Amino acid sequence: MRERARHDRTTIYDVARLAGVSHQTVSRVINNELGVAARTRQRVLDSIQQLGYRRRSAARSLASSTSQTLAVLSTGGCSYGPSATVLGIHRAAARHRLAVLSSLLERHTASAVPGALGLLLAEEPMALIAVTDDEQAAGTIARICEQSRTPYVLTGATPPNNELAPHASVRLDQETAGQEAVEQLLARGARRIGYIPGPRFSADAQSRQVGVLRAATQHGIPLRRLPEGDWTVKAGFRIADSLRSDEVDGIVAANDRMAIGAIQALQARGVSVPGEVQVIGFDDGPEAALVDPSLSSMRLSFDLLGVMAVRAALDLTRGTASDVAIRSQFVERGSVRTTRTSLARIGDRRPAAV
Amino acid sequence: MRERARHDRTTIYDVARLAGVSHQTVSRVINNELGVAARTRQRVLDSIQQLGYRRRSAARSLASSTSQTLAVLSTGGCSYGPSATVLGIHRAAARHRLAVLSSLLERHTASAVPGALGLLLAEEPMALIAVTDDEQAAGTIARICEQSRTPYVLTGATPPNNELAPHASVRLDQETAGQEAVEQLLARGARRIGYIPGPRFSADAQSRQVGVLRAATQHGIPLRRLPEGDWTVKAGFRIADSLRSDEVDGIVAANDRMAIGAIQALQARGVSVPGEVQVIGFDDGPEAALVDPSLSSMRLSFDLLGVMAVRAALDLTRGTASDVAIRSQFVERGSVRTTRTSLARIGDRRPAAV
DNA sequence: GAATTGTGAGCGCTCACAATT
DNA sequence: GAATTGTGAGCGCTCACAATT
């Protein structure tokens, strides 16, 4: 035998020796397999305890060609939605006793996606969950996963048509949310509605816009489409500031930040919110409740999105591909006027989902 | 040879055959080792490219008993500080081409720490970084890491005295930040300063308080210590609301949220901020700039904290233990009065760090 | 025959050393 | 002798099967 640094690590062989069984029996016990006599199992468990044995997952992965690891790639930095989604993924993964390997990138670092993905895939995760609303990044992720035959779940972006690797899509039903945002303003008496869209590259922004436009069409009201913003407060301010007085009596912004900026611009010009202009944002992030007036917003269940993404990933490994859309919820706050009439009639037209 | 499902996976042996070299030479190339002839290296690289070979990290870990993986355990949920720290860790890890295995828990889930840690340690990370300001959680983490001889880095909590496993501490210099917050108010004419502390279990809250109290003592001003809050806007509101009029002309709150709540309470009673009471928070999170008046805050470089934590973790694996404190920065906004006099004289007394 | 336990090879790398140029 | 390349065992598990109760 060669001279190799002898580690003091305990292996299943040590446990087996102490328990007086074979290594395979120990393997059966740590994998909770059936067909081990209760007494034997107990002896093995005692030995594990006594020696402080802990299974080496690298050895297991290598031998079984499977891992108990989920990979997560997010391009959302530390902004609220992506963070909450990633947190939901972790909660669900912990419940299934899966390890989570993650790579968090910031927006506009698409060039870093292949490198990050390579690092993740080297660990051979059972599946990869992409948390991104950047269509280009999602495309890159899908392509590389297809190449390496890694099952993947997209949250927020459009799934491709490829079929080399199993994949699924979990998303928030942003279209319906966009539609409801407009309908909430209509129900509150607004008739000249302006829409501040999010950036073109964002799938989220696109679907919200589709819903907004659809609502306007369906209800036969003109929609004032404002310039595209980049999600920031500053952009919301600038865009709302360019409006002529009286041009709108309601504003839907594609996210909370831009809605907050819009409110600030209106207030700076002495326009009352919600008296003269009502405003609704998207996300219902933590800042929505803090501003004055507090911001009404379409609440998107990012946490649930993460949980469903894990479920979809596990389904994939069992051969089932899912395509889930999660419903949003209107949160009424100070930036809109209260309404006495029930909105049920308008709201109920939406298709059920989840 | 037994019948075993033959995977189509390419290994270094496949690469070696194609390149006409031994598997060891391939290993040398993929590990960037010296002493491989340039021509040979190129042939191997070409073969890797051609076959789409990707190293299996499980095999590498098993054979070398080392991994290129960093484990991260956070108890901060998706709130700003912890998220930004975790993001910083990811940025730095990516730069070093390290995989990141993470477990994100929410506050008050201390009971989940051992389970989460077990899952992480099974992967045998080169080191673990704890992102928590919960002393109890940090204690548990330290104990378990010591047991399994895993190097660990604490961010935000106090390191223990154990010496079984190498460990380091990286933190934000919260004491100095607390001191400066008070001094900024003093420099702006405030003389009756109230302090809203964070929860007792939080190490962050404790160090901020130490600095605040020290500043008051040093400058010989009375400090009105208010009841302890739980970081929420609501707590800040409640605590500030319990103040008698004129009791304070300056408030330092242990975080932005509580500071925002305090401002709202004051404004609700018709007290002008910053006219009658000036307010300073901690964190400089995204909400600080959004409220009205915008909130002055002690900016803590969470991102840098994460980056330094990775550096400390790498140092640990080379046998160096570091203990780093990162300086904070005052961000002046609308919730304090402007001052014409330079603050350099008061500010300069602080010891240099990082 | 059913339930339980054991045997030995193999997963894909790295390590220590040997062999070749 | 220095630079480069090769050999075979071993890391700690699981797999497929065999052997035992």
What does this structure look like?
2 copies of one chain form a homodimer. Chain A is of the alpha/beta class and 354 residues long. The first copy, chain A, folds into 3 domains: 12-55, lambda repressor-like DNA-binding domains (434 Repressor (Amino-terminal Domain)), CATH 1.10.260.40; 69-171 and 303-328, Rossmann fold (3-Layer(aba) Sandwich), CATH 3.40.50.2300; 174-300 and 331-337, Rossmann fold. Chain A is 42% helix and 16% strand. The first copy, chain A, has 13 helices and 12 strands. The first copy, chain A, has helices at 12-19, 23-30, 38-51, 57-64, 80-95, 113-121, 135-147, 174-187, 203-218, 233-241, 256-268, 302-317, 344-347; strands spanning 69-74, 99-104, 127-131, 152-155, 167-172, 193-196, 223-225, 250-253, 278-283, 296-299, 323-326, 329-331. In chain A, strands 2-1-3-4-5-11 form a 6-stranded parallel β-sheet, sandwiched between helices. In chain A, strand 3, helix 7 (135-147) and strand 4 (152-155) form a beta-alpha-beta unit. In chain A, helix 5 (80-95) packs across helix 12 (302-317), helix 8 crosses helix 9 and helix 10 (233-241) packs across helix 11. The longest helix of chain A is centred in the N-terminal third of the chain and has 16 residues, at 80-95. Chain A is elongated and about 85 Å long. The N and C termini of chain A lie far apart (60 Å). In chain A, 50% of the residues are buried. Residues 1-6 and 341-354 of chain A have low confidence and may be disordered. The interface between A and B is large, with 55 and 55 residues. The first copy, chain A, binds a DNA duplex (21 and 21 nucleotides) through helix 2 and helix 4. Chains A, B: InterPro entries: HTH_LacI, LacI/GalR-like_sensor, Lambda_DNA-bd_dom_sf, Peripla_BP_I. Chains A, B: It holds the Pfam family LacI. Chains A, B: GO terms for molecular function: DNA-binding transcription factor activity; transcription cis-regulatory region binding. Chains A, B: Residues 10-64 form the HTH lacI-type domain. Chains A, B: Keywords: DNA-binding, Transcription, Transcription regulation.
